[in-house]
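Metallopeptidase family protein, Nocardia acididurans. C-alpha cells?
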Amino acid sequence: MPVTMSEDRFEELVGDALDLIPGELSDAIDNVVVLIEARNDEEPQLLGLYHGIALTERDFSHYGGALPDTITIYRDAILEMCHTEEEVVEEVAITVIHEIAHYFGIDDDRLHQLGWG
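C-alpha cells:
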C-alpha cells in the first residue's frame, strides 16, 4: 500500500535531502532549480530526472545566460513504491543525491557502482 503524505511534508523531505549534501558540493551547485511534480508523463515510474548540461560537459564561453538546469523529483512515483514514511525519507534522499550527481557529470553506471543507483 502506497504511503500517503501531504505535498508540504514531501517538499520538506526534499529540502532535508538537499541539506545532506556536503557544503563544498552544495557551494558548487549553480543555476539549478529543484522541482517536485506528481509524476513524469512519459515514464510514470521515474523517481527523478536531471535536465541540463552536466558541469563536466559545459563550455562556459557559451553557457552564460542559459536557463537553469532542473532536477525534478516525482512525488507519486516515490510514494507508490514505499510502504512507510521512513522508506520515503530514504528514497527521497537517494533520488535527490542521484540527480545532483548527474549535475556533476556522474553517470548511472558509476552511481550504481557507488550504491546510489
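The mean pLDDT is 90.
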